[in-house]
Design goal:
Layout: H1 19-31, H2 37-43, H3 54-57, E1 65-66, H4 78-83, H5 96-100, E2 110-115, E3 121-124, H6 125-128, E4 135-143, E5 147-157, H7 158-165, E6 173-178, E7 198-202, H8 203-206, E8 212-217, E9 220-221, E10 231-233, E11 246-252, H9 259-264, E12 287-290, E13 296-298, H10 306-309
Parallel strand pairs: 1-4, 2-11, 5-12
Antiparallel strand pairs: 2-3, 4-5, 5-8, 6-7, 6-11, 8-9, 8-10, 12-13
């Protein structure tokens, strides 16, 4: 007899909140006059009188419009999205970010803009991100470890920010850095990676309509463990491209070194496009398991977003440029 062990972050498929119920529940909460902590706690499944972690308790509702990218797939449960994460600055265990990220100070938050652009300088988060123009987009997100989630992100198109910063003709790539807070991030005390965490995109990738800077999920500000207050979302790429808690944006002429390429170039490439035809050296990328499900499903090229992004890689050898 096959016995399946259900981990504490898993929920049965029947427990996943469908998109229409998610929006209906938020409308009901708003009509009840619940704001701030009340909406955040009920939406996350925590009671008003307790049960939420310190990181969850800090979230608050956001105002946003429909961003136009939506899926028919059921959403991944909020508890899994916020409780099962890769954020090595807080530890290598999947539950470490939710356990330790409450120590991260996210207000106030400033970003440095550097390099080949006219908009260099230091910006308060609210001055760089137009919070009055936030969108919600539901994206399928694929992790290199062969699991995936469907997440309703709230934020702004990365291209809007790039165009506002006016890159020069020399700019070919956009480079990002994560905050490095040794007193708040216990994971950086270990040499798992060369800190701070570094990522990058080609400029045309950054300008693609799918590329997104998220400041929230499930209608609320980002929990710390999910990359508060600002993270990158590129749903056609593997999850390690989704750099969190961004403090630096730099426009550069040459392909930048990124954390996982620096750490293990034979396993992690700069492009990180979801490609089921190229296996990771230690496991197959041909199938994946959606968090909340037991069955495996076939991995889709570009994570199913080929219509939006395949043209970016015309003529490239996607086995070499993995």
């Amino acid at each position: 007899m096959l016995i399946k062990n259900v981990e504490n972050w898993m929920e049965r498929e029947s427990a996943v909140t469908p998109e229409n119920q998610y929006h209906s529940r938020r409308d009901i909460l708003k009509s009840m006059g619940l704001g701030g902590i009340g909406v955040a706690a009920l939406t996350s499944g925590a009671g008003l009188l307790g049960g939420a972690s310190a990181a969850q308790a800090a979230v608050r509702p956001l105002q946003y419009a429909d961003g136009g990218f939506r899926l028919e797939d059921d959403l991944t449960p909020h508890s899994a999205v916020t409780g099962y994460n890769n954020f090595y600055e807080f530890g290598t265990g999947k539950e470490d970010p939710a356990r330790y990220a409450s120590a991260l100070t996210t207000e106030p938050w400033t970003l440095r803009v550097e390099g080949e652009c006219d908009g260099t300088g230091t910006y308060d988060l609210e001055d760089l991100i137009p919070f009055n123009q936030l969108q919600e987009r539901i994206y399928r997100m694929r992790c290199v470890e062969a699991w995936s989630m469907v997440i309703p992100w709230v934020g702004v198109p990365l291209g809007d920010i790039v165009r506002r910063l006016q890159p020069t003709s020399k700019a070919k790539y956009v480079y990002f850095e994560t905050a490095l807070r040794r007193g708040e991030m216990p994971g950086v005390r270990r040499a798992v990676l060369d800190w701070p965490y570094k990522e990058g995109l080609r400029l045309d990738e950054a300008l693609n309509d799918l590329a997104f800077l998220a400041v929230g999920l499930y209608g609320e500000t980002l929990p710390n463990q999910n990359g508060a207050p600002l993270r990158l979302v590129t749903p056609w790429k593997y999850g390690f491209k989704g750099i969190k808690s961004i403090v630096t944006i730099r426009f550069v002429e040459d392909m930048p070194m990124t954390s996982w390429v620096d750490s293990a170039a034979q396993e992690y490439g700069f492009y990180a496009n979801v490609n089921p035809n190229v296996d990771h050296p230690r496991w197959s990328q041909g199938t994946e398991r959606r968090i909340g499900e037991f069955r495996r499903r076939k991995t889709l090229m570009y994570n199913g977003y080929g219509a939006q992004v395949a043209h970016l890689y015309d003529g490239m050898d996607l086995r070499k440029n993995y």
